[in-house]
Amino acid sequence: MDALPDKAAPVPAVGGSAPLAGPSPPPPTNPPPSPAAAPAPAMRAASSPLARFWRNPAVKIAVLILALVGGSALFGPLLMPARYQSPTPLQLAPPSFAHWLGTDLNGRDQLYRVFIGARISLAVGLAGALISFFIGTTYGLVSGYVGGRTDAVMMRAVDVIYSIPRLIFIIILINIVEQPFHAWLQGKVAASSSEALRSLPGYSKTLILILSLGLVEWLTMARIVRGQTLVLKNLQFVTAARSLGQTHRKILTRHLLPNLTGIIAVYLTLTIPAVILDESFLSYLGLGVDASQASWGTLLSDGAQAVNPIKSSWWLLVFPAAVMSGTLLALNFLGDGLRDALDPRGK
Amino acid sequence: MPTADAFLEVTDLKTHFPIEKGFLVKKRVGTVKAVDGIDLTLAQGEVLGLVGESGCGKSTLGRTILQLIPPTEGTVVLAGRNLAGLRGGDLRRARADFQMIFQDPYASLNPRMTVYDTLAEAISTHKNIPRGEMPRRVSELLSRVGLSPRFIRKYPHEFSGGQRQRIAIARALAVEPKLIIADEPVSALDVSIQAQIINLLIKLTREMGLTMIFISHDLSVVKHISDRIAVMYLGRIVEIGPSVEVFEKPLHPYTKALVSAVPIPDPARERHRKRIILSGDPPSPVNPPMGCTFHPRCPYMIEECRAAYPPFVDYTPGRRATCIRLHEINPPA
Questions:
Q1: From B130's CA, which of A80, A236, B58, B64 has a CA 20 to 30 Å away?
Q2: Does B155 fall in a domain?
Q3: Residue contact B135–A3, C-beta within 8 A
């Protein structure tokens, strides 16, 4: 539909917009009433959301931390010499020049373990949040847009699911599904020639974890999207689209979704840490990621066992905990920063 | 009153909203009669001003005519087709014939769409336009409403209220409608801009032969643009007639009060303006008074007014009002 190139972010003309016909209409002094409306042209300071986002110091720190953690999770293990990847006779060594974060009970390098743990934890967090995003957004959008009785029924269903203790639900689900899923996956990839595919069944527990976390985390997203849709669909521009004779599909995709991106992005960034936290908790209990694989949860579990009054291997607990809290904090800052930047009434 | 040249014919239109109470199982505890039996006929190219206080049902009437709110009862016949009977895709396609201009230009434009996107979407809703031709079409529309085509890539928040309303008007014109309902299109604008927008609407209706219903609570605005004026009170039309005549000599007691409230921009005459102050508030449309709904506030009330809602009484050709004492309180000059 739009044949024009360069659909850049809105940047108000410097000095206010120049009127065309007749005498210059004074820019409105009142802030626009609708939450979706952008600031009046008189407010020159209201630059693009992206610029406002970057100006936030908390966001800068958060992005730095996330880049560091993400980068080292991706590339860190590759940069480390191979000898760090296998157990050594050096058990429970404190941090030293050879092993920056010390070694664990099996003499494995803790730094390497934290990097590998970050991979699994971040992957689970991202994938789980994405699943919850797809389910939650679709569900909330449909519920809010259709409204009436459908909305009431769909939202009562959410209430009911909310009342189920989600961690217990996940534990039961994993217990039921794990064996058959593992066997099924084994059968699927056994004949495969690819090494990577054949190692997949080892991750069956992690895959189920991602799926089940996604399945329980979408509820809040659905509620938020539904609430915002209810507000948006009564705004005049949606009525205007309806009175133009626009189809429901176009109203949803062109008028509702674009005005929901802000709140969805914010909540998506806030769902990732929630999923990571749940994953760690389950792995800590030995119910999530296999103990043979490292995730932040299993590392913390190992670390907690190694901390005792007689011989305290504090480095096994402190470093994974610090990296994990730093990441969660950064993600939360990022979400808050996004929300502030996307609120058009922001500074 | 079906006439030969009726372009839009509204017959016995009612829009009632149920008031429901209860959790899960809803119980109907009352009805808001927002529009309660409207008959209206417009000729092609005519501009009808629709006035009344807040809450009298003017906007609901406009939206019901455009089928944005489904009517409870009655028909809306536009160019020989009953819109009230249309559903789904039929209704969607029919919408090319009638458009609405909304009150608040800050809320009626999608903040995430450029002027180009907004107008191109409107144009392509009912027509297949080749991509290459679209920029020219959009530019044409913009110049028609007095905006420069160089604004094409700007977002709504970069415009003033008056400019936004011009964009909203351009969007309504994009589908080449025959009927436009303008719902208080200038009441959210500065007074200095109001005149510009009204003059634009007058120019456009003349150029394009549009039929328009202009809804407003501001009599002086309506007077300027309308051929005829209809006065609404509590979901019904109480008086209808040619614009100038309704102003010069209002017939219905309610219209008299409305007209007397308009300040005269002439200090000498303004000093002698006689104001009719109505007592009380407009009654609730949930529980309208028996008989004539205006009788509790009417200075001319007699006992018979409580009995039944008065029918339209013809005064002169084209002028009518719902008052049983119409001739009595308006002796021929």
A1: A236
A2: yes
A3: yes
Contacts A5 to B, Cβ<8 Å:
none
Residues of B in contact with A1 (CB under 8 A): 117, 120-121, 124, 131, 134
Edge-to-edge order in the sheet of strand B81-82: B27-43, B6-21, B73-78, B81-82
The CA distance from A285 to A172, in Å, is 14
Chain B residues near residue A40 by CB distance under 8 angstroms: 157
**CA nearest to B175 within chain A:** A244
Residue A344: per-residue pLDDT: 55
Give the minimum alpha-carbon distance from B272 to chain A in angstroms, rounded to a whole number: 35
| Residue B28 falls inside a structural domain | yes
In this structure, how many other beta carbons lie within 10 angstroms of the beta carbon of residue B205?
Answer: 20
Architecture of domain A49-81+108-342: Orthogonal Bundle (1.10)
Place of tokens 């936030």: A56
pLDDT along chain B (333 residues), means of 10: 70 88 75 88 91 88 91 89 85 90 88 88 86 88 88 86 91 91 88 89 90 89 89 91 90 89 81 80 82 88 88 88 87 76
Q: How far apart are CA A114 and CA A72, in angstroms?
A: 10
Give B210-240 pLDDT, tens digit per residue. Answer: 999 999 988 888 888 899 999 999 889 999 9
Closest CA of chain B from A125, distance in Å: 30
CA angle B309, B312, B315 (to 5 degrees): 140
- List, for residues B101-156, the tens digit of each pLDDT value: 998 888 889 888 889 989 999 998 888 888 888 888 899 889 989 888 888 888 88
Contact B104 A241 (CB under 8 A): no
Of A10, A19, A244, the CB nearest to B157: A10
A21-24 long-range contacts (CB < 8 A, ≥24 apart) are A21/B146, A21/B147, A21/B196, A22/B146, A22/B196, A23/B192
Cβ contacts of B155 on chain A, cutoff 8 Å: 10, 38
Q: Flag whether B1 is in a domain.
A: no
- Inter-chain residue contact B120 with A255, CB threshold 8 Å: no
**How many helices (H) and strands (E) are present in chain B, helices listed first?**
11, 12
CATH number of the domain where residue B233 is located: 3.40.50.300
Instruction: Provide the shortest C-alpha distance from residue A340 to chain B (in Å).
Output: 17
- Which residue among B112, B125, B151 sits closest to A258, beta carbon to beta carbon? B112
Cβ neighbours of A34 in B, within 8 Å: 106-107
Banded pLDDT at A38 (limits 50, 70, 90): very low
Instruction: Give the separation between CA B239 and CA B257, rounded to whole angstroms.
Output: 13
